[in-house]
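Much of our argument rests on the idea that a fold can be written as discrete symbols. In the encoding step, the backbone of a single protein was reduced to a row of integers, each denoting a local shape. This step matters because it turns folding into a mapping between discrete strings. For completeness, the protein is quoted in full, as a sequence line and a line of structure tokens:
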Amino acid sequence: MTRPKKSLGQNFLRDEAVIDRIVKALDLKHDETVVEIGAGEGALTKKLIATGADVLAIEIDSELVPKLRSQFALENKFSVIEADVLAVDLQSALAENPHSAFRNPHSIKLVGNLPYYISTAILQKLAAERQVFSNIVLMLQREVAKRVTALPANSERGYLTVTTEAAFEVTHLFDVPPTAFFPEPKVWSSVVMLTPKPKSVGDEQRFKDLISAAFAQKRKTITNNLKHIRGDAATVLEKTNIDSRRRAETLTLDEWLALYKSFAKK
């Protein structure tokens, strides 16, 4: 049995029923490729391999990597990279992977049980590299899942919500109790599906900067937040048919995209 490392936020998923639901959500075919972030003890990996898909695991724990290679040594469609996923160019890793035949390059999927402390950074990375994948299924802390699925006017809605919504169609699939893991975390988790969207803005970093500024102080109106980056923010909002007295959390994605285009005209 592997001793989980608190420094890496390791909580190994061991509930077979939950693992089966995740694999079912991925709907893997034998000619597809799936990237697994954080293979851990290999419980989910085993079920992924059983689908017949090519499996590329990315595992940061140097003690777990040799165990995974030994456990799946006879599986010619499995490989593992020892690395921090945040430092990996996912497209290059897939292209260089000798076990991935790329029989269906338009159907590369990704799955991961994300450590709580790094889930936001990974979500932002996946948003930036979403063109690589046809579908993504992630296990997140339930509070994070609530944030990325929050609708307009919900107090949970913020920067992470809007930037994720701009990059993906986000669907909450199901919740997972602490008892599904070892060791048991103190919080519930949620499984979400992210379906990549095509690029919707010209400069995604400028779009992110706009969202960040608008949510800088959530209790303030969007005008008060945005006037620090553009003095005529109220006028731009009016021309975009957005009431300047509204707060950022009330705007829909379509309104954010329209506002970005208005700001970009200057």
Q: What stands out?
A: Residues 21 and 155 are 30 Å apart (CA to CA). The mean pLDDT is 91. Residues 253-264 form the longest helix (12 residues). Strands lie at 12-13, 33-37, 54-59, 78-82, 108-113, 135-141, 168-176, 181-182, 189-196.
